[in-house]
Amino acid sequence: MAQFDRAIPPGGAGSITLKLKTKGYQGTVLKAARVRTNDPNNQELMLRIKGSVKVAVFVSNRYIYFFGAPDQSITRVAEVRAERKKPLELTPQEFTLEGKVTYDIKEVEKGRKYTVQFTNIPVPDQHYRGILKLKTNYPEKPEITFTIVGRFRDNMGDMGRPRNKVK
């Protein structure tokens, strides 16, 4: 969101205030704003903002994708890390892909760092989308939701594009 002085007299000064809502962001954030003026020497300026969003719980990847052939077994791993001194606890709350994906939560560093390993269950052609929701003991981040997408089809490459057939 931007606030700015609409009119600035020649030779005068004005101000521009930029606000960034950081919900859903973590780590380094880069944003830019374009400013247009009626100054013939500086008709357009670019303002850049760089900041670091500190979170209570760091999640390396909230989106888990599986693309491939139906008989392929694929594993994806996400890291969950406490960024506060208080020990972190994770408890499974909801899982909607039973029979299609398995998950395993491993405590790598007691109360500090976890890995969540996702593995698809090879089955005939299918597409799915679901979630794994974990409850935490941090009031700042009471739950973590992983969105899981799978697309398995014959004659498809890893990115879902048809493979060239050899005759």
The helical percent reads under 10%
Main pleated-sheet profile: 4 strands, antiparallel
Tally the helices: 0
Determine Rg (CA atoms, Å).
23 Å
> What is the count of β-strands?
12
What is the end-to-end distance? 57 Å
- Give the H and E element order: EEEEEEEEEEEE
Strand order of the largest sheet: 5-7-10-9
Q: List low-confidence stretches.
A: none
Summed over residues and divided by their number, the pLDDT gives a mean of 87
Write the SSE topology.
Elements: E1 2-4, E2 16-18, E3 27-36, E4 44-53, E5 57-59, E6 63-68, E7 75-82, E8 90-95, E9 101-109, E10 113-120, E11 126-138, E12 141-152
Parallel strand pairs: 6-12
Antiparallel strand pairs: 1-2, 3-4, 5-7, 7-10, 8-11, 9-10, 11-12
Describe the 3D structure.
The structure is a single chain. The chain is mainly beta and 167 residues long. Helix content is 0%, strand content 54%. It contains no helices and 12 strands. The chain has strands at 2-4, 16-18, 27-36, 44-53, 57-59, 63-68, 75-82, 90-95, 101-109, 113-120, 126-138, 141-152. The strands form 4 sheets. Strands 5-7-10-9 form a 4-stranded antiparallel β-sheet, with no helix packed on it. A 4-stranded mixed β-sheet has the order 6-12-11-8, with no helix packed on it. Strands 1-2 form a two-stranded antiparallel sheet. Strand 11 (126-138) and strand 12 form a beta hairpin. It is elongated and about 70 Å long. The model has no long low-confidence stretch (mean pLDDT 87).
